[in-house]
Design a protein that fits this description.
Elements lengths: L1 H15 E2 L8 E4 L5 H5 L6 E3 L6 E2 H6 L1 H6 L5 H13 L3 E4 L19 E5 L19 E4 L4 H6 L3 E4 L18 E5 L12 H14 L1 H7 L5 H9 L1 H17 L2 E5 L7 H14 L6 E4 L4 H6 L6 E4 L3 H8 L4 E4 L10 H5 L8 E2 L4 H13 L2 H12 L13 H13 L1
Parallel strand pairs: 1-4, 2-3, 2-5, 5-6, 6-7, 7-8, 9-10, 9-12, 10-11, 12-13, 13-14
Helix pairs in contact: 7-8, 7-9, 10-15
Length: 408
């Protein structure tokens, strides 16, 4: 097994080697996970800088090895990325991964002028506001008004909402006996990150949920404990929703997080199938071919349920019928719905996850017509939606990008 894993590692490394120089373009996309920006802004010519070792320019590395080794303030890999950016000399750098703080520092190491644009891509936990003090960016495009963002980032902040959500105009719900759950699944391995924070939350969790803890979590490795702790809400909620669907003859859909045919997608499906159990068959997984699929799968959905999904917030912003069963705030997760709509508890959100309350909520959502929901949204929700704006077709950002290119 060790030999096999070693050979896989070697093969992957060799496969990722590039025996040519990076291509020079005016627009550089930082991190392959920022690729959605290519579609959103219809960018024809660009260079994607892989920031997670997906590719490695071996000739370039040895060509610049002295300069790469000189920079003592960065890791070897970070210094390598900086040298690639210097070689390309883009006019604009676009980054969609706002929780990669290294990107906030890039311009401090460049010897030429360019515009660095960073986009908020999701809801942030409290401990994810630790932006570098010496950040050097030109624009930060954020979801909405947020005191912590505005206080931590001194550069120009522009409120646009979600750049992905702005790309779409979603269709109104069609009344069907279907409940769609928006998954917020992450890999177990992701819980290796921020172990200090998870450990702190875990101790509080054990105290509050002592009975469930003793029955379910005590024998796991640490990172698996944190995983099971974080998804404690889903573990309680999904079986109840499945029971409701079986009793009321509804279909259950689960909108998955990961792309098709990946190991992570298989894990995600397995996670939910174990919660649904064998006594209910009328369910399906809404597959994801690319980043657009998640949004297109929201079209015409009658009842959307989620925990603390950014996609759920985006759907609500487009006036879709969404209900939030909120995750426990012990985990450093801001209950953004509860915070902004304290008077709408049990109308658009709840932290009571028991059979009686979930059944009652789902009955009410199904009985609520689209017309009544629209009136309710306009009166009670819209005026408080300052934390997630909506700029259809991203007109604000497109103007800034075009101006930067015109000056190039």
């Amino acid at each position: 097994m060790k030999y096999k894993n070693f050979m896989i590692t070697v093969f992957t490394f060799l496969k990722n080697l590039r025996f040519y120089l990076p291509k020079k373009e005016k627009i550089l996309i930082f991190d392959r996970y920022s690729h959605c920006l290519i579609d959103i802004f219809n960018i024809k010519k660009f260079f994607i800088l892989d920031a997670r070792k997906e590719s490695f320019y071996i000739f370039f590395f040895f060509w610049k090895i002295i300069k790469i080794l000189k920079n003592k303030n960065l890791t070897l890999y970070q210094s390598y990325l900086i040298e690639i950016i210097k070689f390309i000399k883009p006019k604009i750098i676009l980054n969609f991964i706002d929780n990669n703080f290294f990107c906030f520092l890039i311009k401090n190491y460049l010897n030429f002028d360019c515009k660095l644009l960073i986009f908020q891509n999701g809801i942030r936990r409290n401990y994810e506001f630790n932006f570098p003090k010496d950040s050097n960016i030109d624009y930060f495009f954020c979801f909405g008004k947020n005191k912590k963002f505005h206080k931590k980032i001194q550069q120009k902040k522009i409120i646009i909402g979600s750049v992905k959500n702005n790309f779409f105009k979603l269709h109104k719900p069609v009344k069907k006996k279907v409940i769609t759950f928006i998954s917020n699944y992450r890999k177990e391995e992701d819980f290796y990150i921020n172990t200090k924070n998870w450990s702190k939350f875990y101790e509080s969790f054990k105290i509050k949920y002592k009975k469930e803890y003793l029955n379910n979590f005590s024998y796991y490795e640490d990172y698996k404990k944190y995983f099971n702790m974080f998804y404690f809400t889903e573990k309680k909620l999904i079986p109840i929703i499945a029971e409701y669907c079986k009793k009321k003859n509804f279909k259950l859909e689960i909108l998955v997080t990961f792309d098709n045919n990946s190991i992570d997608s298989d894990r995600e499906v397995d996670f939910y199938e174990k919660l649904i159990k064998n006594n209910f068959k009328n369910y399906k997984f809404l597959t994801r071919k690319n980043w657009k699929s998640s949004y297109l799968n929201l079209n015409k959905k009658n009842i959307l349920i989620c925990v603390d999904s950014t996609l759920g917030l985006e759907a609500l912003r487009q006036k879709l019928k969404v209900f939030f069963f909120t995750r426990n705030t012990l985990f450093g997760r801001t209950n953004i719905i509860g915070k902004n709509f304290p008077n709408l508890k049990e109308r658009i959100w709840s932290n009571k996850i028991n059979r009686k309350n979930v059944f009652k909520t789902l009955d009410r959502l199904y009985a609520l017509s689209n017309e009544k929901w629209k009136v309710f949204f306009d009166k009670k929700i819209m005026f408080r939606f300052s934390y997630l704006e909506y700029d259809f077709k991203n007109k604000k950002v497109k103007k800034i990008i075009q101006e930067a290119l015109n000056k190039a």
